[in-house]
Amino acid sequence: MSLKLVISNLWKGYGDKxxxxxLSYVFDEKKVYVVMGPxxxxxxxxxxxxxxxxxxxxxxxxxxxSTNKILPKDINLLRKITYVFPEVGIxxxxxxxxxxxxxxxxxxxxxEINSKVEEVLDFVGLSHKKKQNALxxxxxxxxxxxxxxxxxIKPEFLFLDEPTAFxxxxxxxxxxxxxxxxKEQKTTTIVIATHDSPFAFTVGDEILKLENGKVFxxx
Length: 219
What we know:
CATH architecture of the domain at 4-93 and 158-217: 3-Layer(aba) Sandwich
Number of helices: 7
């Protein structure tokens, strides 16, 4: 199934501040969309609404399948969508078990879990850390582990909120390389919110600016 996300006439506010104003956009290709904008512009709110983690005050958020049918917002759809927060939530257990979590709750057997986790840890360069307690990882390693945990379940939509925040230059380059490899596979639509302009223009296919509650295409 190939998912398309259509955002229509979105409004969202907190108290007396409106952050999204009649915003509409369509994510319909397997590529990297990067949302940029100043602090408080609503980037995180926009991503969370897209990922079905928050509801808008007004407007529509619909995922469509390859036959252009609107999909119900049920567990089947939610399992095709993954959101990675700026600070990766880490369980007090090994790196391997952190990455395996999503597979376990989906009912994969032990052999499948071992194979998939080993593959994705190799992909993000953390195979040598698999038995280490995840709480001891550096911030950059934790970001890569979060990406591994997201990718191991093979989402069709991956939302990344500030993936290079609190990360050293070496890990930024590693994350850039990983995202470029993921988009070359053309199996996942990636939507990123970031302040990091060089990172955005390195990995992004579409650069979007969120300003005054609306999204504008930069390139």
